Amino acid sequence: MSLQLDRLTVTRPNGEAMFAPLTLTVETGCIASVMGPSGMGKSTLLAAIGGHLAPGFRTQGHVLLTGRDVTHLPAEKRGVGIMFQEAVLFPHLSVADNLAFGLSARVRGRAARRAAVEAALGQAGLDGMGQRDPATLSGGQRARAALMRTLLSQPCAILLDEPFSSLDPELRQDIRAFVFDSIRRAQIPALLVTHDVKDAEASGGGLIGLAPAAATSAGRA
Amino acid sequence: MSGQGAIFIRGAAGALIVAGLAVPVAFGMWHSLGASFGYFPAIGATRLSFEAWQGLVALPGLWRAAATGLFAGLLSTAISVMLAFAVLAVFHGRLRHGTFSRILTPLLAAPHAAIAIGMVFVIAPSGWIARMLAPLVGWAYPPDIPTVGDPWALALVLALVVKELPFVVLILLGSMTQIPVRQHMATGRSLGYGRAACWLWLVFPQLWPLIRLPVLVVLAFAISVVDMAMIIGPSNPPTLAVMVARLFADPNVDAILPASAGGVLQLVLVGVGFAALLGAQILVRQLGRLVLRCGLRLRWLDKVLSLPAALAVGVVLLAGLGLMSLLIWSVSFVWRWPDLWPASLSMRAWRGAAESWQGAAGTSLLVAVCSTAIALLVAIVWLESGDRTGRGGTSIWLQFAIYLPLLMPQISFLIGLGGMTLQSGLFSPLALVVWGHWLFVFPYVMIALADPWGALDPRLERTAAALGAGPWRRFVRVKLPALLTPICTAAAVGFSVSIAQYLPTLFLGGGRIVTLTTEAVALSSGSDRRVAAVHATLQAVLPLLVFVLMFAIPATLHRNRRALRGGFSK
After folding, report:
1. Strands of A190-194's sheet in order across
2. Cα–Cα dist A157/A138, whole Å
3. pLDDT tens for each residue of A97-116
């Protein structure tokens, strides 16, 4: 599996480009980082890759997943998982149901599905917490649960939108290690946007600076 | 004003709300209950018995009437909620902000009776739709199909949906601001679920608890509606609410006893409706969880959901057509079957019925302006005194008090209230009608005003205080101008609620107060469509004019103040 961006940029409703065209390749199990000051359009870049652009914004260039051009597919057909800054757990579902919601429909049968969810909870260190209200989890637990939900959907790539920035400093390292290890083990290409250089260093992948629209930025991870 | 003074004023406002609203509603209900068991001293009935109930049960078609009312209420509410849900799932994020309220406000402002009469003009065998079909199907005469007043009350269901759908859409839209819809949609879609599936699994379950209470209000209203059911509902037997209203109007004084029993039965019916809705909610939630755990991505739902969304657009178009037909019928002179347009226009109906509509319009205006002004005043006094005593927001008991008249069937407690006040003769019918309208205007004004009032940035007032402005100056110079837009919106909502009232006018006015609504309902069964159309047109136009006016006032005064203009409703 791989994630390729080919001269990708996003134009605002008024037609102007938000950042310089970006070309990069992330191989399977690698985690590339995109850095840049806030307001540069880092989150917009991820929205373009995942298919979540707000109305009026347009993608130029191409997004390829293992060679398949997904640039114009709706979000739900891309198979691109996303993790936000605040771990988005659905508040009306139990922790286990959050994971079951993510679990790919290819896993069939009630027993098999329940086992898959239990196994994922175990991996995330959330044994026995399946029936809990997500609001009662700690920040770290929420982040781990959200990652597990994404991995259970068997995505072709994962986007990480500053997922560690809302965590306490001491927790941050643990969660970071957990997220990166899990992604490597699952052999999925991942793209991380961050403004913390330590996140980028820990990812062990390439580091790309997002350039203003006038310049060009390119990299290989 | 000192802290003591503020506490006193708050106490007075609270006492007024309890004594003027909650107590009479509860007392009216209690009186209906007593009368249903034969206790009504004013007409000399003091012996407890089951005769009233026996009289009620002996009425031909009673059970069918009860079942029809319940069925029409449940079906129309279910359809309204589902269509509103589909509309938002399909159009949210694709339409510009404010488009919904601009399209839906005229429908929201139009009274039920006007909508029902308009629907009759459109869907009746001699209505617009049949006229459009006539050349295609070859109908030489209006077809003999019961498209209005059908025994299943399907025409009534349609009219109710037309009226309630815009309300439910706006309620859903308002509650969506409390949920991070975009983020949850993005997360759901990144997991492979389509838009419709994300709405079904993620957005709607979170919105439902927020809209449940307003939906119960819609349901209670739909089960107990009288004016719409008289105009477009079944006739033999009618729905229970209509049956009870006719009993109340019976010249035989003793008929009020079985009528009261009917009012109690109506309350039971609404209770059954609530139980059915809440039961369905539990069932749907359990079933939903089972399906959700299978992880099916249901992307095909996106295409399926565009069907109800298209239906909802159709309903809105139908409503527009209905309102237009009111105006056209009122100025038509010769309009033969199957012409789509009258052969000649004339103001004859307007001139001929001038005395009738001028009087009715004057009374309607007077009652609406008085009840809305009192409601606004009480609401503002309550909210402002809350701010000054540091007890902002709405308390539980106030919530209870303002939802009480909305959740109880009007007819159930108005029978008791009407019976009591008619016999006492202490108040003038006009004053009683103003008060009766206020019972329903005040809750809506309060609901429209409480949220924006609470959302006002408290730093504005603190800044003014720091500059040396006293409480009154702060209130008049800072808060009222800053809250002008929501106050105007609340006024428009209150006005349209008052114009639409039918039962309070009828039951508390003792038949002596004639408004556009009572006239329109009375004329709708008459022979001359044109005169009914004149009254219904006025009835629909007045609230709309007030909405436009209440939109124009802040828009003009605040034309150079972008931060204060806000949206129309929120």
Report:
1. A80-83, A157-161, A190-194, A31-35, A207-209
2. 26
3. 999 999 999 999 999 999 99
Q: Inform me whether the C-beta atom of residue B314 falls under 8 Å from chain A C-beta atoms.
A: no
Cβ within 8 Å, pair A52-B186: yes
- Would you state the structure tokens that stand for residue B500, as one six-digit string? 């639409």
Which residues of chain B are within 8 Å of residue A55 when distances are taken between CB atoms?
93-94
Residue A165, CA atoms < 13 Å, CB-side half-sphere: 15
Rounded Cα gap, residues B22 and B35, in angstroms = 20
Type and span of the H or E element at B251:
none
- Domain ranges for chain B: 64-240+302-346, 347-391+425-570
Question: pLDDT digits over B259-280, tens only?
Answer: 999 999 999 999 999 999 999 9
pLDDT digits (tens, 9 = 90+) for A10-37: 999 888 899 999 999 999 999 999 988 7
CB-nearest to A50 from B190, B294, B299 is B190
Confirm or reject contact between A97 and chain B (CB < 8 A).
Answer: yes
Task: Tell me if chain B has a CB within 8 Å of the CB of A100.
Answer: yes
Instruction: Give the fold, CATH level 3, of B64-240+302-346.
Output: MetI-like fold (1.10.3720)
User: B210 — contact with chain A (CB < 8 Å)?
Assistant: no
Any CB–CB contact under 8 A between A50 and chain B?
Answer: yes
Do B64-240+302-346 and B347-391+425-570 share a fold? yes
Per-residue pLDDT reduced to its tens digit, B484-509: 999 999 999 999 999 999 999 999 99
Question: In chain B, what is the greatest distance between 2 CA atoms, to the nearest angstrom?
Answer: 79
Mean pLDDT of B22-26: 92
In angstroms, the separation between the Cα of residue B182 and the nearest Cα of chain A is: 9
Q: What is the CATH number of domain B347-391+425-570?
A: 1.10.3720.10
Domain coverage including residue A29 = 2-218
**Closest residue to B295, CB basis, from A47, A79, A104:** A104
CA angle B143, B149, B154 (to 5 degrees): 100
How much is the ipTM here? Answer: 0.91
Q: Which amino acid is at B7?
A: I
- CATH code at A76? 3.40.50.300
- Nearest-Cα residue of chain A relative to residue B185: A52
Domains of chain A: total: 1
Chain A's closest residue to B198, CA to CA, is A76
B294 touching chain A per CB within 8 A: yes
Q: Give the up-direction half-sphere exposure of residue B171: CA atoms within 13 A in the CB hemisphere.
A: 25
> What are φ and ψ of residue A23, in 5° steps?
-125, 125
Test the A interface: residue of B187, B207, B305 with most A CBs within 10 Å: B187
Measured between CA atoms, how close is B289 to chain A, in angstroms? 8
